[in-house]
Design goal:
By secondary structure, the chain is mainly α. It contains 4 helices and no strands. Keywords: Membrane, Transmembrane, Transmembrane helix.
Length: 70
């Protein structure tokens, strides 16, 4: 959701098809909700992983995702 919102909000890229203010507010609200639900499930799932090294893998993947989308 975040990459789509980012790219469709760029007037230089989308020109006349860029998101308006109402669209940005609605999609940002949906994005926050989806990210919160996903974060809840990750936090509740990670402690049940069988090996502590998986914590590092989850952290690395989360950092990579955030690095690509911001």
């Amino acid at each position: 959701v975040l990459p789509i919102l980012t790219f469709t909000s760029m007037p230089a890229l989308m020109q006349e098809f860029a998101n308006g203010l109402v669209s940005k507010v609605i999609t940002s609200s949906i994005m926050v909700l989806v990210c919160a639900v996903n974060l809840y499930f990750v936090i509740s799932y990670v402690p049940s992983l069988p090996h502590p090294a998986y914590f590092s893998l989850v952290t690395l993947l989360a950092a990579a995702y955030l690095g690509l989308t911001t």
